[in-house]
Structure formats: structure tokens, C-alpha cells
């Protein structure tokens, strides 16, 4: 699990086409400091497995499913990327629970600079709109953010100077794709309600049981 707090703004060194997959070599001295084969590192919000590391760089294989569902397929040598290691057990949850499993991609529609922040409007795929709510959490290119406004086909986020300076969201422009991961709790609740396991009576019974356990 990740938290959506980007540790490092890294870069793609090379991309090798493997036919039904791609092998990425990325530079990230901070995230590779203690990384080893088999570890996970989130790249623009996508959880990838480390193949090997050397001199502040690491390689990772990206399968076709990931390339098709995320914006990683658009990356090339020189592209900047957000990097984050998994949260250590007992560590602080600075953002929100992030799996690194991208639900889809959005497109930056417009940017509105302010004196101390910037509002970014992002197109929202119809299949994800029901999971995005005002003041809820969403992950954009691996960055944990709070939704400002939510509509059926777009949402807005407010970026502080630190986010603009230390993540790819500071250099993305209108028309650029971004990876989106909605709050996993919303998906679990929907699944439970869809199976009839979350009726009003069930939820009240659960609350009463928890109260008795105290």
C-alpha cells in the first residue's frame, strides 16, 4: 500500500519494447536507496515490481494490461515521473490508502493559476464518476489529493506550491493524460451494497455489535 505522498520526482531513462510488455529503466536515487529485487515502487501512481537496481536507477517490467489502462504507455526517455515507496508498517498515513492499481486515465482540461495555488480541471471517465465526491480523496498520477468540485464528467483539484514544485502535476499541461485511482473504500462499499450485505438493517446491526464490544 502507498499513501499518495510523492517522495521523488524521477525520470525515465529508457523504454525497451518487449512486444506484449515494456521494460522501463528509471532514475530515482531516493526510492532506490534501500530497494531490492521484488520490491514495489509506485510510478505515476502505478505499482511496479523492481527487477534490479544500480547507481540510483531501477528497472521494471510493465505488462500490456497496465500499459493499456494507464498513461505509462505514453512515457519515453526523459519523461518525468512521480515515485513513491510503499508505506512501512507503523508509518504515518500522510495522504490516504492508495493501492497503486490505476482505475483509468483522465485528461487535464484547464489550469487556473492563483496567487498561492492552482486549480486544475480534469476530465473524469463516466465509469469512475460515481466514486468521486466533493472533499473526497482521489489519486492523480500517484498524488493523494482532495476533490474540490465533482461533476459527472470532470472534477477539480487545488494544488499548493509544494505539489507544483515536487511532482509532475506542476509541469503537466492541458491535453496531457493522468492516471486516476479512486478511493478503494468506495468500491468495496458499492460491492457490498450490490450483494445485499449492506442494507440499512445490516449496517445498524453492525453498529450495535461494535458498540457492545466496547
Task: Explain how this protein is built.
With 214 residues, the chain is an alpha+beta fold. It has helices spanning 64-69, 161-166, 184-194, 200-213, and strands at residues 8-17, 21-27, 40-43, 46-54, 57-63, 80-84, 104-113, 118-123, 137-140, 143-150, 154-159, 177-182. It is globular, with a radius of gyration of 19 Å.
Short summary:
The chain is of the alpha+beta class.
Distance between the termini: 29 Å
Q: Averaging pLDDT over every residue, what do you get? A: 88
CATH architecture type of the largest domain: Beta Barrel
Name the CATH class of the largest domain. Answer: Mainly Beta
Helix content: 10-25%
Helix vs. strand class: alpha+beta
Q: What is the beta-strand fraction?
A: 35-45%
Low-confidence stretches: none
CATH topology of the largest domain: Elongation Factor Tu (Ef-tu), domain 3
- Largest beta sheet, briefly? 6 strands, antiparallel, barrel
- Order of strands, widest sheet: 1-2-5-4-3-6
Q: Can you count the helices?
A: 4
Number of domains: 2
The SSE string, one letter per element, is EEEEEHEEEEEEHEHH
Amino acid at each position: 500500500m502507498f499513501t499518495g505522498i510523492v517522495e521523488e520526482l524521477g525520470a525515465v531513462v529508457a523504454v525497451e519494447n518487449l512486444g506484449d510488455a515494456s521494460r522501463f529503466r528509471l532514475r530515482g536515487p531516493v526510492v532506490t536507496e534501500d530497494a531490492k529485487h521484488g520490491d514495489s515502487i509506485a510510478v505515476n501512481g502505478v505499482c511496479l515490481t523492481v527487477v534490479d537496481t544500480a547507481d540510483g536507477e531501477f528497472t521494471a517490467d510493465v505488462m500490456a494490461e497496465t500499459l493499456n489502462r494507464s498513461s505509462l504507455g505514453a512515457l519515453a526517455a526523459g519523461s518525468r515521473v512521480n515515485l513513491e515507496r510503499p508505506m512501512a508498517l507503523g508509518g504515518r498515513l500522510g495522504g490516504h490508502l492508495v493501492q497503486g492499481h490505476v482505475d483509468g486515465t483522465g485528461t487535464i482540461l484547464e489550469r487556473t493559476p492563483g496567487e498561492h495555488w492552482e486549480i486544475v480541471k480534469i476530465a473524469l471517465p463516466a465509469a469512475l464518476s460515481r466514486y468521486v465526491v466533493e472533499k473526497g480523496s482521489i489519486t492523480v498520477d500517484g498524488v493523494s489529493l482532495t476533490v474540490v468540485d465533482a461533476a459527472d464528467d470532470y472534477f477539480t483539484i487545488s494544488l499548493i506550491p509544494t505539489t507544483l514544485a515536487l511532482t509532475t502535476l506542476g509541469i503537466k499541461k492541458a491535453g496531457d493524460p493522468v492516471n486516476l485511482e479512486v478511493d478503494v473504500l468506495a468500491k468495496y462499499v458499492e460491492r457490498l451494497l450490490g450483494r445485499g450485505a449492506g442494507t440499512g438493517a445490516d449496517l445498524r446491526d453492525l453498529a450495535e455489535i461494535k458498540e457492545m464490544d466496547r
